[in-house]
Amino acid sequence: MHRKSPWSLVLALGLSAACVQPPPAPELDDPLPGLSDDELERFEQGEAIFEGTFTAAQGLGPLFNAEGCAVCHSEPTDGGSGPLDETHVSGIGDEGECDSLLERGGPVVQERATPALQALGIEREPLPAGVTASAQRTTPDVFGFGLIDAIPDMTLLALADPDDRDGDGISGRANVLPGGHVGRFGRKAAGASLAAFNAGAFRIEMGLTSSGEPFENTLAGQPLPTGVDPLAEPELSAETIARVNDYVRFLAPPAPARLVEAGQRGKILFERVGCAACHVPSLRTGDHEVRALRNQVLFAYSDFLLHDMGPELADICMADAESAEFRTEPLMGLRHNGRFLHDGRAATIRAAIDAHGGEAALARDAFVALGERERAALLAFLGSL
Questions:
Q1: What is the pLDDT of residues 188-241, one digit of tens each?
Q2: Residue 267 maps to which CATH number?
Q3: Which of 222, 250, 278 corresponds to the end of one domain?
């Protein structure tokens, strides 16, 4: 019996492996790979709700900013960022503490009203009394939010160095919320869980109440006029909330573009100048009931901690986060954005870097000190994310 040489077997296996192409990276608005049939079905059901709109008869408003999730999250596709900006406010309490003005309609001001309110001459929510600071906020994308939600608290706490004990000038701190969980959603890291973030968005942005957010928005702290809110609370069913949570939880993170040579050099420079001290390239999720979210590496480029970004970027405070403190913005999907920073003031990535201050000043200055080709390489890397 003729036997093949072991080297010919190795060669055959190698050729066979070379013919097997890796699975394509998920496109924007695609679900995570590895979901079960049931999870995919729930994702699709939630997607239909996310892409739809609500009417006043279905509970929209009476004060709101948008009629549906995708009205804000639409660029470059559903789940992305969007063109709408909104106004956030804060005040100062009697003892000098931050006041998010929750009892007076804050911190988000609703810019629109249903016909029932308009008939009473109310076109939008008035600014709450006691406002000492206001700010504009752009709409963030929600890609990869399920993986962010699945990062263990202990992982983020281990990155924190509020007293700068290592002396590197970076003193990021975790925003530990009531209940002990670490905030990671929102520009001030005020949300610790995806479910709470979504329920809050439904109420604040659309005036739609749920079991997690059962109380209607007020008119700058005053009760709504009688008869303008046709549905009893909660207006959203538990099933509706659960399906939208499934859609956002199972959205895949944006895949980076393939790096060219300059981008490869820029990736090294990103670490060298100190950007990665806050924009931590990768974090791992923990144990999770959903296999596709369990023990996954997420290239978010964030530590999700609060950092002092300096007086030029300071605007509102929010609970325990001071006016100059912001959560490190994740950089995944950066190339799909057209405006940068929390208020969209920067039209380019370079302008956003130049606006960094506070704890980010050392990395900013190191970037500025690079040669022209090196700066271009680093920007090429950022433009690939």
A1: 999 999 999 999 999 999 999 999 999 999 999 999 999 999 999 999 999 999
A2: 1.10.760.10
A3: 250
